C-alpha cells in the first residue's frame, strides 16, 4: 500500500509505533552504555555501580523491549509459519491472516488489562523494591500495558485493513 493511500488511523498508529520504538532503542543504547561502564568500573577499578543491575533489569530492559513490540510486528519482526500460507490459494491468505489477528487481539487485550491492573496497583500502593535506592515498582510495569495496547490496536487494524498477505512486512 502506498503511503498516499494509507488509512489515516494506520498512519497515526505507525507514528506512535515509530516514536515508541525510537524511545525503546534509546533506552537499549543507554542500557548498553550503563552495563559496559559498570563492567569496566567493576573489573578495572573494583568500583561497580551498585544500582546498575536493578535499573537495567527491572526498568530499562522492560521499557526497551516492550516499547518495540508493535513496531517489530509491523515491520516483519515476528515468527510466521509461511508453509501453510504458501500452500493456500491466494484468495484464502488474507482471510487467514485477518482471522489470526482477530484471534490473537483478545489475548493481547487481556494481557494489557492484567498488566494495567498490576501497574495501577503498584502506583496506588506505592510499591517499592528496597535496595540502595528504593525503586518504585510502578515505573517498571508502566511500559508493558502501554505497549500491549498499541500492539492490540495494530492487530485489529491489520485484521480490517488492506494488508498484503504475501508480504512478510506489509506496512
What does this structure look like?
By secondary structure, this protein is mainly α. The protein has one domain. The protein is 71% helix and 2% strand. Strands 1-2 form a two-stranded antiparallel sheet. Helix 1 packs antiparallel against helix 2 and helix 5 runs antiparallel to helix 7. The termini are close together.
Can you describe this structure in just a few lines?
Helices cover 71% and strands 2% of the residues.
Question: What's the structural blueprint in terms of helices and strands?
Answer:
Elements: H1 8-45, H2 52-66, H3 69-74, H4 82-87, H5 90-124, E1 128-129, E2 135-136, H6 138-141, H7 143-160
Antiparallel strand pairs: 1-2
Helix pairs in contact: 1-2, 1-7, 5-7
Q: Cα distance, first to last residue?
A: 7 Å
Number of strands: 2
Strand proportion: under 5%
Sheet of most strands: 2 strands, antiparallel
What are the main properties of this structure?
single chain; mainly alpha; 7 helices; 2% strand
Amino acid at each position: 500500500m502506498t503511503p498516499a493511500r494509507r488509512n489515516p488511523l494506520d498512519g497515526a498508529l505507525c507514528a506512535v509505533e515509530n516514536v515508541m520504538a525510537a524511545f525503546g532503542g534509546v533506552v537499549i543504547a543507554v542500557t548498553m552504555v550503563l552495563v559496559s561502564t559498570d563492567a569496566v568500573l567493576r573489573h578495572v577499578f573494583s568500583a561497580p555501580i551498585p544500582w546498575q543491575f536493578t535499573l537495567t533489569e527491572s526498568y530499562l530492559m522492560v521499557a526497551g523491549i516492550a516499547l518495540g513490540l508493535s513496531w517489530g510486528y509491523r515491520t516483519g519482526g515476528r515468527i510466521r509459519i509461511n508453509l501453510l500460507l504458501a500452500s493456500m490459494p491466494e484468495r484464502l491468505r488474507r482471510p487467514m491472516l485477518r482471522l489470526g489477528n482477530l484471534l490473537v487481539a483478545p489475548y493481547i487485550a487481556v494481557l494489557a488489562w492484567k498488566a494495567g491492573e498490576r501497574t495501577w496497583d503498584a502506583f496506588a500502593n506505592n510499591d517499592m523494591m528496597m535496595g540502595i535506592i528504593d525503586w518504585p515498582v510502578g515505573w517498571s510495569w508502566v511500559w508493558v500495558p502501554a505497549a500491549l495496547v498499541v500492539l492490540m490496536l495494530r492487530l485489529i487494524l491489520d485484521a480490517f485493513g488492506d494488508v498484503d498477505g504475501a508480504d512478510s512486512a506489509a506496512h
